Known about the structure:
Layout: H1 3-33, E1 39-42, E2 47-54, H2 67-91, H3 97-120, E3 123-129, H4 141-159, H5 164-171
Helix pairs in contact: 1-3, 2-3, 3-4
Amino acid sequence: MKAKGFLRIFLILIVLGLNIGCDQVSKSIVRQKMSYDTQIGFLNDHITLIKVENKGAFLSVGNSLSGPLRIILLNLLPLLAVALGLVFILTRTSLNRITLFSVILIVGGGFGNIYDRIVHGSVTDFMHINFGFFQTGIFNVADVSIMTGMIILVIYAWLKKPDAEEIVEERA
């Protein structure tokens, strides 16, 4: 492998590590410093920090699952998806920087939440936004990473101009 390939992989792993690290450090601080009955408000309580443990997936989906089904749907399948995402970004050298960065965000966020689910038995969520017309569920840094990656991908796909090959294929 050429030096350029090693540098690319090194940079991918650095960005991925920073992404996962920010998520894990924030959750660790919340686990250690906040109690479940504490609520800290910012901007007239439009943004609040509140510690909850989510035993399910996004918005507590699958919270009531138990046994092998829980392990398969909440641990193994997401772990497989994150692993495939990692292989994808490490092996696809033709990805543009926007797509690469977006997928790194998604993989990093996914790994952060899966790690929590496997190691702690639940995912620590702690941020909530409520501006009346716009309100979220309680989420964490990994969720922000996943959503940011998805939003960037969607906007990029929407704004991307087709290249010459795509135009020729459409006319044929």
